[in-house]
Design goal:
YigZ family protein, 5-stranded antiparallel sheet, alpha+beta, UPF0029_Impact_CS
């Protein structure tokens, strides 16, 4: 899955109408609605606030997709915005395009180009990342072995996320779900097979 790299906005002007697109990364529909409400409050004088959102669950593959024309002719604003998000394969994102009418009607085709273009400009400005589902694994080893294992992990294909010192040293490693079998082999090779990985559940990482 792909996500936006950061929240942001971009503004375009067409035939004296201003189109300001705000995009934000969100975890659920409730968070998306909060963003929409915030944009509406920030621009009460806008003629329209048209929206599109896509929110995915990497665990189940479920996807929620919604759009709104907010008073523009049906299919000229929210739907083309949603099509932009779909073509780019983006999830966990809400987009709001606020329009200030400039006095010139754009026609259906012009509105489609204006709203999709405003969103495209905003997405180009904020950039994109990959959302990759990992498993978070905990490795507990004695202090006498921790330094070597930490060194090996830092020079491996796997991501060492944290090191906690206590009675033992606990190393937290994020391993892509597709690589868990290979990691088990790697761990056995580098520890003699006497260190077990405790799987604490899924963890999403956002990668270039």
């Amino acid at each position: 899955m792909r996500v936006i790299a950061r929240d942001g906005s971009a503004e375009t002007e067409i035939a004296r109408s201003r189109f300001r697109c705000t995009v934000a990364r969100v975890a659920d529909v409730g968070a998306a609605q909060d963003v929409i409400d915030r944009v509406r409050r920030a621009g009460p004088d806008a003629t329209h606030h048209c929206t599109a959102l896509r929110i995915g669950d990497p665990g189940t593959g479920d996807l929620t997709a919604r759009s709104s024309d907010d008073g523009e002719p049906s299919g000229t604003a929210g739907v083309p915005m949603l099509e932009v998000l779909t073509r780019r394969g983006l999830t966990d994102v809400v987009a709001v395009v606020s329009r200030w009418f400039g006095g010139t009607k754009l026609g259906a085709g012009g509105l489609v180009r204006a709203y999709s273009g405003a969103l495209t400009a905003a997405l180009d400005a904020v950039g994109e990342l990959r959302r990759v589902r990992h498993r978070e694994l905990l490795l507990a080893v004695g202090h006498d072995r921790a330094g070597r294992l930490e060194h090996d992990l830092r020079h491996s294909p796997y991501r060492l996320c944290d090191v906690t010192h206590g009675t033992d040293v606990t190393l937290t490693v994020a391993v892509a779900e597709t690589d868990t079998g290979a990691f088990a082999d790697w761990l056995a090779e580098h520890t003699g097979g006497d260190v077990e990985a405790l799987d604490t559940g899924p963890r999403d990482l956002y990668l270039p």
